[in-house]
């Protein structure tokens, strides 16, 4: 080991061999924050939406808030229980998509995939919009500029993910645990104050809510039911993100499924406690909360509020009241809530490529997404996600309340298909399983999934009924679009595959090889190409020179003779300074005169390393190779000659290989080897 | 000939063979409009600038206007006479750049080239700005939006040139001749009215010009001289564009040089008549014209003008007065003047790539610019020109008066170096020439060029003195930048060339060829690649499969056995779904174990035709080829398999070959063959 190696090792840390990879898998205490940020962050906006919906009938309707919280908690418990079955049955990380595809067929799988795609976009839009609201409640100067600020945040996330940030456990652990401590701590203090009778009132406690026209008096049963259904379906936004763990099983330490199931249970309990506590506390502290568009429905002592009244989010109001004598507590809660929302958005940037690569492997997305090596494909996906999210944020002016109407349709479509798939899964297994203990376990699992399905089906119907006109139709249109796109891509791949299927005649060997070496000058690359071409012992070998200038042509011919080249040189005249067309025409000509032979075109290329050097070179070779690909019976050989500066590009490529790509952590694919190892 | 061919021939016109190309060369009557628009269009703004400069000392200074016109005319005559020598001596179309390079060395040549590059940008900016002013004088709604309108015009020209419009003779002939008729007709009518004593007054005739502070009283001799020098140097803008013919000699019909010289003479006479007539008429009709920024210096009967007073260009004012009883005449003059200005700007879009290809062939610009086939390079040049012109138009708010300060420095730098080069040229020829008649002719030519040089040198000094601070410094900075860039590009090419220079050891043939064929599936492209690779009889031949999924791997291995493939298949395991790195590593490994051999990598590729199909395929092959180019001792062979849809791309490429590119007409390179001919 040289001195350089030693110093590098000191600087860059111990290298891990590929076989040591197990060490980088996630223990539960790290996996929880990695996969929890999306699910937990919804406590930052789901309670607000419940109160907004109930406020339509005035503050008296808030008496229903804790019942709605319980209903959402029950549904969440059922869903969590269902997904615990899924992580045991499908530990490969395919999640809902895999469950639906395997058990219900590719059409159900594609439906789930399109729902998930739309959902990733909405996760970014909703989380960032809500995060921008929290930022505005801590920094008053941001008020009114939430959409701009949110778009900038999305651009920042995009840039970080394009650069390839290492989504590491520690990256998530600190803020997520801090968030749990802050929210649960705040709720704990608040509940303690409640029981000791010292509970403070929130800033909006002395306000009065004017009900919406038509909802003033005692409500009809139907109107009440519809109102509660709307509040409930908005509250179900708290369920988004619980499926993340089922996509991340491969990243867990062994026993993977068991650890994933335990983590899921933990996540569910924390999420439910947070949501129920926040809703109960808010109600007890006298919160009055309306749609930000309807601030004129809030009055104080019969007077309209001042025009600059700023309605703070539910958690911000509770934190302000609980920590009234300790402002750092307020800022801690608001700050970590904002951070967790940004982390939740980042989750989508990591989940999107994972889903893309799974779809690519099944032929529903461009193949390039399936290979880790294709940086361009990754980048396109990330840019697409960011652009779509920004469009939504700007179109809906970063208003969480309006975006949430679009949000949970997709989640519940995939919940439903996934539960249905799991029921089929157990039914199928039960047909062959004979062991009674095992059968009992399966029947129990099937029951859990059936309960889950019945809950999520009811929610989906409620969501569709209450939200279709409010915005869910946009989601459904987008899902149909993605569905059609994926089917079309798959159709194309199938068509190509059929056209490419091998039959016997394809094994016929060409009768002769006519090799031509392109000559532009008599320099090292040309000599190397001639030598390599000669080494393949073709039936005919000749150099080809495209002449655009008689003086240069004569000079080359003289040099050719002088060097006693043992390969004939053919000159093609090109009066219009074209280089590409004469060569393509000549190759076509050779092939035409001998249709069973093959033309081997050798192109000497010298390669340089810096981007501006690449602008100055090789354009013609690139164009020519592109053209010859479309010429039947021709094979094109690049004979590279590496100039000294090409070393720069080689090293850049090597370090690029080891760059972490979004989603790697979730797939358990973190390779800690260092480029040096390959450079030997 | 099939029915299809006949109908195509009817639709698309008679095909011309390459040998019939002579027919598309330009007769004088077409060449004049093609090359004249730039030079003639300056009559649209040069007189205005003369009057603006003189107005600084009040309307009394206008008594100098016709003398300045005569001075400019004399310089123009001298320059025209000089260029008539150039077109005889250098008929290849290299123009000033060639003259300077051959006679004064590459540094002078590069200086001329950088001057011309800057000038092309300014031609677009000045012509379009002036055109926007004419448009505003006919369409009052455009007033105040000249910069936006001008930028849109540049974008339109850019789009047309990117599409590849056919710059044909008829495209130029009609508007240019109409312009000549309109302006000369207007001047003729005006002069007739002058002699019959019926000359009308222009709209600004009853205004009074307040001189600039400091220039009110009788001027000192020095102040007067400086004022006249400024007016004269602005008037010299009329000389821009006369050099265009010297770059276009190859496009003329035989005898090329003689026809070009005659056309140049005609052009000079027309330009001089127009300019002198306009200036004389304007003065006689009582024109008052000031810098558009100084409109407050114009008064009527001691009263300030209304705030919305719109000062129309000189030609517009004359036309308005001459055609006061016949408004269509006014609109004709203004419209054709606007059109000729846009054509002049288009001239730069055509001249820029011509210069680029000449520079590329000498190694001063990226090589790609030198080959007609490279559409990308052409496009980049056109976009660059348009963007720079738009930046200038917006920065100077489309004010011709301010842009003109930057304009003519470049022109006169190249005039001077070119004249100096011509003098050297004749001196050199005289050293060997013995025929007395020929010697007399040469001495006379040298005298003409010497007179030209003395005039243009004086003008250059005047321009530098009067305009340096007013904006010429920007031009000079830009010239220095382009100069340095061109030298750097040439330096890079020279360095690469030295590194590539051949020596004897390069002829050593590789001792053995180890061929590997990349296998992804056992389909037609793979079978073809295996057959082609086998046909080259390598020392070792093996298939390589990168395994990312054990199930797919087993399936392939089984199929390989079943089909009794006679080539061994090697499986490389890739736990991270990478495709590229394992192959690069394997190739490096083979090469390392046998450093004198060569690794031949065969990549089966299927090619599709539509752009969206290309997005779905071949990404990995592209990345892999890029990577292997940087791996020493490897040659990379693409074995294409053309799918049915690839025919679409092939036809698109063929028709692209025949697309006319900007500048083709000027180079005499219009190939009228039709793609069908190649499609046999």
From TrEMBL, chains A, B:
<feature type="transmembrane region" description="Helical">
    <location>
        <begin position="376"/>
        <end position="398"/>
    </location>
</feature>
<feature type="transmembrane region" description="Helical">
    <location>
        <begin position="404"/>
        <end position="426"/>
    </location>
</feature>
<feature type="transmembrane region" description="Helical">
    <location>
        <begin position="471"/>
        <end position="489"/>
    </location>
</feature>
<feature type="transmembrane region" description="Helical">
    <location>
        <begin position="263"/>
        <end position="282"/>
    </location>
</feature>
<dbReference type="InterPro" id="IPR002293">
    <property type="entry name" value="AA/rel_permease1"/>
</dbReference>
<keyword id="KW-0472">Membrane</keyword>
<feature type="transmembrane region" description="Helical">
    <location>
        <begin position="64"/>
        <end position="83"/>
    </location>
</feature>
<feature type="transmembrane region" description="Helical">
    <location>
        <begin position="177"/>
        <end position="199"/>
    </location>
</feature>
<feature type="transmembrane region" description="Helical">
    <location>
        <begin position="330"/>
        <end position="355"/>
    </location>
</feature>
<protein>
    <submittedName>
        <fullName>APC family permease</fullName>
    </submittedName>
</protein>
<dbReference type="InterPro" id="IPR053153">
    <property type="entry name" value="APC_K+_Transporter"/>
</dbReference>
<feature type="transmembrane region" description="Helical">
    <location>
        <begin position="147"/>
        <end position="165"/>
    </location>
</feature>
<keyword id="KW-1133">Transmembrane helix</keyword>
<keyword id="KW-0812">Transmembrane</keyword>
<feature type="transmembrane region" description="Helical">
    <location>
        <begin position="447"/>
        <end position="465"/>
    </location>
</feature>
<dbReference type="Pfam" id="PF13520">
    <property type="entry name" value="AA_permease_2"/>
</dbReference>
<feature type="transmembrane region" description="Helical">
    <location>
        <begin position="219"/>
        <end position="242"/>
    </location>
</feature>
């Amino acid at each position: 080991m040289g001195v350089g190696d030693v110093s590098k090792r000191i600087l860059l840390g111990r290298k891990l061999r590929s076989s040591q990879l197990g060490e980088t898998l996630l223990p539960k205490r790290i996996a929880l924050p990695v996969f929890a940020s999306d699910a937990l962050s919804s406590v930052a906006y789901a309670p607000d939406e419940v109160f907004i919906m109930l406020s339509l009938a005035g503050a008296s309707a808030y008496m229903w808030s804790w019942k709605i919280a319980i209903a959402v908690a029950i549904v969440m418990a059922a869903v969590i229980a269902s997904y615990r079955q899924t992580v045991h049955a499908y530990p490969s990380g395919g999640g809902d998509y895999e469950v639906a595809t395997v058990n219900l067929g590719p059409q159900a799988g594609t439906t789930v995939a399109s729902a998930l795609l739309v959902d990733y976009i909405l996760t970014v839009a909703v989380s960032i919009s809500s995060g921008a609201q929290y930022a505005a409640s801590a920094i008053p100067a941001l008020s009114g500029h939430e959409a701009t600020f949110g778009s900038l945040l999305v651009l920042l996330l995009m840039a970080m993910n394009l650069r390839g940030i290492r989504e590491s456990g520690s990256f998530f652990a600190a803020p997520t645990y801090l968030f749990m401590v802050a929210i649960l701590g705040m709720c704990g203090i608040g509940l303690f104050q409640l029981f000791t009778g010292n509970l403070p009132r929130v800033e909006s406690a002395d306000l009065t809510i004017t009900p919406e026209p038509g909802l003033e008096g005692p409500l009809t049963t139907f109107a009440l039911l519809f109102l509660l259904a709307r509040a409930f379906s908005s509250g179900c936004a708290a369920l988004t993100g619980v499926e993340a763990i089922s996509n991340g099983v491969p990243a867990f330490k062994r026993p993977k499924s068991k650890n994933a199931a335990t983590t899921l249970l933990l996540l569910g309990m924390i999420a439910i406690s947070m949501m129920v506590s926040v809703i109960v506390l808010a109600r007890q502290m006298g919160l009055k909360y309306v749609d930000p568009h309807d601030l004129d429905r809030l009055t104080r002592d019969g007077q309209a509020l001042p025009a600059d009244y700023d309605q703070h989010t539910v958690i911000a109001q509770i934190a302000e009241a609980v920590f009234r004598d300790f402002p750092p507590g307020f800022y801690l809660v608001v700050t970590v809530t904002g951070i967790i929302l940004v982390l939740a958005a980042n989750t989508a940037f990591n989940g999107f490529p994972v889903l893309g690569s799974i779809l690519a492997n099944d032929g529903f997305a461009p193949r390039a997404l399936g290979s880790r090596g294709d940086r361009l494909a990754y980048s396109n996906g990330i840019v697409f996600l960011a652009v779509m999210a920004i469009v939504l944020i700007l179109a809906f002016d970063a208003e969480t309340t309006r975006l949430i109407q679009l949000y949970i349709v997709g989640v519940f479509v995939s919940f439903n298909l996934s539960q249905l798939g799991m029921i089929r899964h157990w039914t199928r297994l039960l047909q062959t399983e004979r062991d009674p203990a095992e059968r009992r376990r399966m029947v129990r699992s099937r029951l859990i999934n059936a309960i889950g399905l019945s809950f999520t089906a009811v929610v989906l119907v409620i969501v569709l009924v209450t939200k279709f006109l409010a915005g869910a139709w946009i989601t459904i249109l987008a899902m149909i679009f993605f569905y059609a796109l994926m089917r079309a891509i798959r159709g194309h791949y199938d068509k190509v595959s059929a056209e490419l299927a091998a039959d016997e005649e394809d094994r016929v060997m060409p009768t002769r090889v006519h090799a031509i070496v392109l000559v532009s000058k008599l320099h090292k690359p040309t000599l190397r190409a001639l030598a390599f071409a000669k080494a393949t012992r073709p039936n005919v070998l000749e150099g080809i020179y495209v002449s655009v200038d008689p003086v240069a042509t004569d000079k080359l011919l003289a040099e050719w003779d002088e060097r006693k080249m043992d390969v004939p040189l053919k000159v093609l005249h090109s009066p219009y300074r074209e280089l590409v067309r004469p060569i393509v025409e000549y190759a076509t000509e050779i092939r035409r005169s001998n249709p069973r032979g093959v033309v081997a075109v050798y192109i000497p290329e010298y390669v340089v390393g810096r981007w501006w050097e690449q602008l100055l070179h090789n354009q013609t070779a690139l164009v020519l190779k592109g053209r010859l690909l479309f010429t039947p019976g021709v094979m094109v050989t690049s004979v590279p000659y590496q100039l000294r500066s090409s070393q720069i590009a080689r090293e850049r490529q090597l370090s690029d290989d080891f760059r972490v790509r979004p989603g790697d952590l979730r797939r358990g694919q973190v390779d800690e080897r260092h480029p040096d190892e390959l450079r030997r």
